[in-house]
């Protein structure tokens, strides 16, 4: 903690950049609510891409354990490529969720501050209720997204381990050792896909509510 003050300028710079970005966008008619919708939709696309990458990695794993002769070096290269693609897709999902959090926090802070500007009590009450409802929906969505994000970690760990093991043991015995891992990886990927589908469905509902 004694070195935390060294990070303060950087944090202020990042916060300042975000504030400047939101201000610039508002000047051209794009508000935080619009940015939040765009980022949620981008996260949907990112999750859909991640699903494809993990499914592809599972298919490659299935082909790997059925190995019956051939170029093991090429098989390793393909296996590692699938892992790298999954890792990149997972990183993109995390980045998208972080960007959603950033603009949502800014939006809700602004909304809360602007409640003080109302002179009409009925309109203020209605806006306060809408803010509470939106924050509740958002909180549920964020939890679902983070759950799906966490579901990727055990799969990535397994894919990385399999790739490393194959790299250092390019022989048929290594393939046999990996066969026992397939069912676990398959189960984890199926759970991951279910979690992401839930997040995508909630995202669609959240966007629809914001656009009302």
Describe this structure in words.
Keywords: Coiled coil, Signal. Pfam families: DUF2959. Residues 1-19 form the signal peptide. This is DUF2959 domain-containing protein. InterPro entries: DUF2959. By secondary structure, the protein is mainly alpha-helical. It folds into 2 domains: 1-29; 31-211. Helices cover 86% and strands 0% of the residues. It is elongated. The two termini are 45 Å apart. 25% of the residues are buried. Mean pLDDT is 90; it is low at 1-13.
Give start-end ranges of low-pLDDT stretches.
1-13
What's the quaternary structure here?
A: single chain
Rg computed from alpha carbons, rounded to a whole number of angstroms:
23 Å
DSSP E strands, number: 0
Distance between the termini: 45 Å
Total of DSSP H or I helical runs spanning 4+ residues: 6
The ordered string of helix (H) and strand (E) elements is HHHHHH
Main sheet properties? none
Mean pLDDT across every amino acid position: 90
Write the layout of secondary structure elements.
Elements: H1 8-27, H2 32-65, H3 72-114, H4 121-168, H5 172-179, H6 182-211
Helix pairs in contact: 2-3, 2-6, 3-4, 4-6
């Amino acid at each position: 903690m004694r070195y935390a003050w060294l990070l303060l300028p950087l944090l202020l710079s990042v916060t300042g950049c975000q504030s400047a970005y939101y201000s610039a966008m508002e000047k051209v008619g794009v508000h935080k609510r619009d940015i939040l919708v765009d980022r949620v939709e981008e996260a949907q696309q990112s999750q859909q891409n991640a699903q494809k990458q993990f499914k592809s990695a599972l298919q490659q794993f299935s082909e790997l354990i059925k190995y019956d002769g051939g170029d093991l070096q090429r098989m390793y290269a393909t296996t590692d490529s699938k892992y790298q693609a999954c890792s990149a897709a997972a990183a993109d999902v995390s980045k998208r969720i972080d960007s959603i959090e950033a603009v949502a926090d800014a939006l809700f802070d602004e909304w809360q501050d602007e409640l003080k500007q109302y002179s009409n009590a009925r309109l203020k009450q209605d806006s306060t209720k809408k803010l509470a409802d939106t924050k509740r929906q958002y909180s549920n969505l964020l939890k679902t997204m983070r759950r799906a994000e966490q579901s990727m970690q055990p799969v990535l760990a397994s894919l990385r381990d399999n790739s490393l093991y194959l790299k250092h043991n390019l022989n048929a015995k290594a393939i046999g050792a990996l066969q026992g891992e397939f069912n676990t990886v398959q189960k984890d990927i199926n759970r991951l896909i279910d979690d992401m589908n839930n997040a995508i469905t909630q995202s669609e509902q959240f966007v629809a509510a914001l656009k009302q």
